[in-house]
Amino acid sequence: MASPLILLTPVTALAMGFPGVRAEFGMEFVSAALVGAVVAPVAGFVVAHMGHRRRARRRFTIMGAVSAVPILYFWVFAVLLAECPDGYHC
Questions:
Q1: Can you tell me whether residue 89 is helix, strand or coil?
Q2: Which H or E run contains 12?
Q3: What is the structure's pLDDT at 54?
Q4: Contact 24, 5 (CB under 8 A)
Q5: DSSP string for 14-69
Q6: pLDDT, tens digit, for every residue of 23-51?
Q7: What is the distance between the alpha carbons of residues 24 and 18, in angstroms, rounded to a whole number?
Q8: Residue 67 class from Cβ within 10 Å (0-12 exposed, 13-18 middle, 19+ buried)?
């Protein structure tokens, strides 16, 4: 649940006037947020699968889908659309 907060910490620090935090720790915060959003659902799903717990597997599947939405938006808007200059259709 803390992954979105960790992901937004460098941006918040920059908005509050602390550009050094983003410059120095930005990549660490992004990697920690993405690892937390990806590893937690996968690990929970594997443990639930090994323990034959169907309801827990369903919950971790939903958790993985919810975690994937912000990652997908970040990938589309920050990576794919950043390659297209204004006025060009990619």
A1: coil
A2: helix 3-15
A3: 94
A4: no
A5: HHTT-HHHHHHHHHHHHHHHHHHHHHHHHHHHHHHHHTT-HHHHHHHHHHHHHHHH
A6: 777 778 777 877 777 888 899 999 999 99
A7: 11
A8: buried
Instruction: Calculate what percentage of the chain has a pLDDT beyond 70.
Output: 81
In angstroms, the CA 75 to CA 54 distance is 31
Specify the amino acid at residue 77.
Answer: F
Residue with tokens 């912000």: 70
User: To which residue do tokens 């960790």 refer?
Assistant: 6
Q: Tell me the C-alpha distance between 61 and 81, whole Å.
A: 28
CA distance 58 to 51: 13
Torsion of CA 29, 33, 36, 42, to 10 degrees: -140
CA–CA–CA angle 6, 18, 71 (5° rounding): 25
pTM, two decimals, is 0.56
